[in-house]
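Researcher: I'm preparing a figure for a lab meeting and need a structural model of a single chain. I don't have an experimental structure, so a prediction will have to do for now. The sequence is pasted below. Please return the structure as tokens so I can convert it later.
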Amino acid sequence: NQPALTRTRIIEGGHYLWTDPATVYYSSRLSHEREGTLECAKNLSLELGRPLKICDPYAGVGPSLIPLLSEPDLVGELFAGDLNPSAVEFLKENITFPDAIIECSDARDLKNRPELIERFDLLLVNIPHDTLDHLPTLLPLVRPNGIIRGWAVIEDDQFESAQEQLRRDVNPMAHFEIRRSYSATANLCRFETRKATQ
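Model: Understood. Here is the structure written out token by token.
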């Protein structure tokens, strides 16, 4: 097979990763968000006194995971997936963590796998146009009091209703923080919250 002409090796935060703009999505504009994810994970690991069990079911080519895996003793278990088979191929190339589970799967189906229920300390939800719709099916994967960190594109006139939905579905204390403008009428927003204990 001839290598794709658009296959590209990029560097972000001192880490190299392979991507291909013709077949997968990657945005360097989210690099600051990924730095925040690393800080969140380090704090959680310190709190728990052990390496983390992390789930990133929308991992793409792995830009959020590479900084986490580069930190000694931060990650104990990793589940990474994506619905795009091309992204998963790059993910397998970019992730060198020996015990990682990497697969092409629909994140909404993971709740049907008993071995994944309440397994993870940290869940990343980076599917901005569908985050709120997917969240209820992802929550079973997170242990009580685990952290969910996610992003959503929210129209200005829907911000309050989105906030109410997040609080209803995840945690009454959860809230969105506007990160940057996405369009003339919408913003990319982030939340970081604990899974409410019953």
